[in-house]
Structure to design on (279 residues):
């Protein structure tokens, strides 16, 4: 289940959602914006960074890590990347908070001894989704987070209940919630067909974002396959390096390549086209 992308969409749609999980959220939680960042030398990928309003300078920065797999070096990485980013941007921030979201305590790192001072600090918040309470009593956006953790037997019933609750939201929020909820269910029941998931939820998936994304993915894969076949006919067998570069192209670039390849006479033409696109 692609939980990273699901939580990214959740926080992107509603950055204040993070603060609903905390005991002491900032007073201006609604003004924070969500981003994901990379810290180079060494390169760290931080799941989520919640940046304070520009006019609040310096403000408190929040780092978020969503962890659904056992990682015995998680705290080493989280603390290293968070403090390094804070150090590199010290003038922008007055303080930092770290939030780590687990489905349950069982996935927490085993060896906590080197990090007891940080973990017991008010600056570090560990959230266990299965300890937040009954999913039906939670704020609806938090309930969507918990839905990613419930077993399949319970998921359908809770998803239907959340669909009913979504109807009480403003139209834009309702649509966003339905898209996220169906995304969660499609990923959770990957072995089921579109029709089966529709019947489970009582909705039509082709009206949702996840259906549009799946359709777009299928179109992109089809375009890649077609372009690779045409290129092989035009310039001969492609080296793996060239195939990998083509497979990383966006749909629009693939369509452009499909037109350009009609003028190719050798592998060198393809290499020149790829270099021009990537430059």
């Amino acid at each position: 289940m692609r939980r990273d992308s699901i939580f990214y969409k959740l926080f992107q749609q509603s950055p204040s959602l993070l603060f609903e999980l905390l005991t002491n959220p900032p007073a201006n939680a609604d003004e924070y914006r969500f981003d994901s960042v990379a810290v180079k030398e060494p390169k760290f990928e931080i799941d989520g960074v919640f940046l304070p309003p520009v006019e609040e300078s310096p403000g408190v920065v929040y780092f978020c890590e969503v962890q659904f797999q056992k990682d015995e070096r998680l705290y080493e990485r989280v603390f290293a990347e968070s403090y390094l980013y804070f150090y590199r941007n010290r003038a922008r921030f007055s303080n930092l908070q770290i939030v780590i979201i687990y489905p349950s305590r069982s996935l927490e790192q085993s060896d906590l001894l080197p990090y007891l001072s940080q973990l017991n600090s008010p600056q570090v918040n560990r959230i266990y989704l299965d300890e937040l309470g009954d999913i039906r009593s939670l704020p609806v956006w938090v309930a969507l987070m918990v839905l990613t953790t419930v077993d399949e037997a319970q998921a359908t019933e809770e998803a239907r209940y959340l669909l009913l609750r979504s109807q009480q939201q403003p139209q834009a929020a309702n649509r966003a919630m339905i898209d996220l909820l169906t995304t969660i269910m499609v990923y959770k029941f990957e072995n089921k067909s579109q029709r089966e998931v529709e019947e489970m939820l009582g909705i039509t998936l082709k009206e949702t974002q996840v259906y549009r994304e799946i359709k777009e993915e299928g179109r992109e894969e089809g375009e890649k396959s077609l372009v690779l076949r045409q290129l092989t006919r035009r310039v001969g067998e492609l080296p793996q390096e060239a195939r990998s570069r083509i497979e990383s192209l966006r749909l629009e670039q693939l369509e452009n390549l499909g037109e350009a390849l009609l003028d190719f006479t050798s592998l060198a033409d393809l290499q020149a086209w790829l270099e021009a696109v990537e430059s």
Remarks:
- The chain has twelve helices and five strands.
- The mean pLDDT is 84.
- The first strand starts at residue 33 and ends at 39.
- Residues 12 and 34 are 6 Å apart (CA to CA).
